[in-house]
Fold this sequence. Notes:
Layout: H1 2-17, H2 31-42, H3 47-53, H4 63-72, H5 75-87, H6 93-101, H7 104-144, H8 148-154, H9 158-178, H10 180-205, H11 210-215, H12 220-226, H13 237-245, H14 257-260, H15 268-297, H16 300-309, H17 317-324, H18 328-362, H19 381-400, H20 404-411, H21 414-435, H22 446-469, H23 471-474, H24 481-508
Amino acid sequence: xxxxxxxxxxxxxxxxxxxxxxxxxxxxxxxxxxxxxxxxxxxxxxxxxxxxxxxxxxxxxxxxxxxxxxxxxxxxxxxxxxxxxxxxxxxxxxxxxxxxxxxxxxxxxxxxxxxxxxxxxxxxxxxxxxxxxxxxxxxxxxxxxxxxxxxxxxxxxxxxxxxxxxxxxxxxxxxxxxxxxxxxxxxxxxxxxxxxxxxxxxxxxxxxxxxxxxxxxxxxxxxxxxxxxxxxxxxxxxxxxxxxxxxxxxxxxxxxxxxxxxxxxxxxxxxxxxxxxxxxxxxxxxxxxxxxxxxxxxxxxxxxxxxxxxxxxxxxxxxxxxxxxxxxxxxxxxxxxxxxxxxxxxxxxxxxxxxxxxxxxxxxxxxxxxxxxxxxxxxxxxxxxxxxxxxxxxxxxxxxxxxxxxxxxxxxxxxxxxxxxxxxxxxxxxxxxxxxxxxxxxxxxxxxxxxxxxxxxxxxxxxxxxxxxxxxxxxxxxxxxxxxxxxxxxxxxxxxxxxxxxxxxxxxxxxxxxxxxxxxxxx
Length: 523
């Protein structure tokens, strides 16, 4: 009789552990919106700028082949996250998976790594978005003079950058909080404009001429000759090509945009195959097309030389296209439309960050209020406000304080945080789950999934080796004890927070949150 009562009491305690029986979120995300979220979170719109800027590091790499392979080698990665999303259709599905397969403290560390690193990343996107407008209006000034020259100069003012960035991001957060039923449509419209602008810019890159570069005030022949001054990081063309691919590792591995909202996606397995796997394929094809078009009109030596000379404007395709096409309506569309590249990313990241904080709080490893979902608006209000406060604070640091260089030092490590203490740990959880039959299992052939996971681990490890082995090139930092502490800090904080919250809730509430991680949260 005593044992029966104890079992019943245990079940009652476990049931009370979750913050709520239903998350209360709006569940209207179809496969197309899930795909848009994934493509925005991959942030492929800004990848050509990063890729072209990195050519002077690997001038002997195979440019188009590198762009093509950069997403092909990540197909196993996207497939693994597709299966995680299909199998665990919960908010922040990869966090839920890792925290159930591995120790809960490790899972909480992973959840905080994804959330914190992407808030830092989002602050950079907000900042760079205004920079994109400044570059675009500088190109308009070449063609049409005033008032565009004045606007470009106006956009260099740090306070203006802060004001525009803060207002824009606040609007993104406000829409997510107060208009969640319309967020999908708004995001869809922004994504369509971003895609049209991206494709149009890619097509027009094929027609950029040396004459236009000279007309913009640059010595084209000097740029070409400066390419010979580049110091290759790798002499072997194969290694140099991988070196180029590593520049995409700050963007393409982030396929978990749709995974973050897996509990809100309608359409079952098909929705996640389209939302995760096909998002990478679509983004990869567009990137390859864009890079191929860029080097079809201007030789690789142009981009290499521009990198050597530090001509950042010339490494921005929108600048090159606008100065080559003095057509005011078209140019205004391209300049303003390219800002939508950054808006699409902001919307995706805002969704992502809020869901990870909410999911960790849902398991009671953060204060329960963080998981609060408004009954009126059906959105995670507190989680969004945390994102708003930290992102805007980071933007302030970037723009108007002497700490900007120190912040960028940390920002450059944000992707390293996610790679090392996010993606790789989730991949290891997959291998543990399959090989040791521990925790919750994937649907489908386990041997195939094990092979996919191992291949993914190899690819991520190669990227990590390049990043950390050449950190001054790829991250702009020297790897030392301080650097490692910064990279590991969110993960370590997550582990500490888990044990602190477990002790607190045992003492104050009489419950052990460890039970939470024995089952899938009831959404």
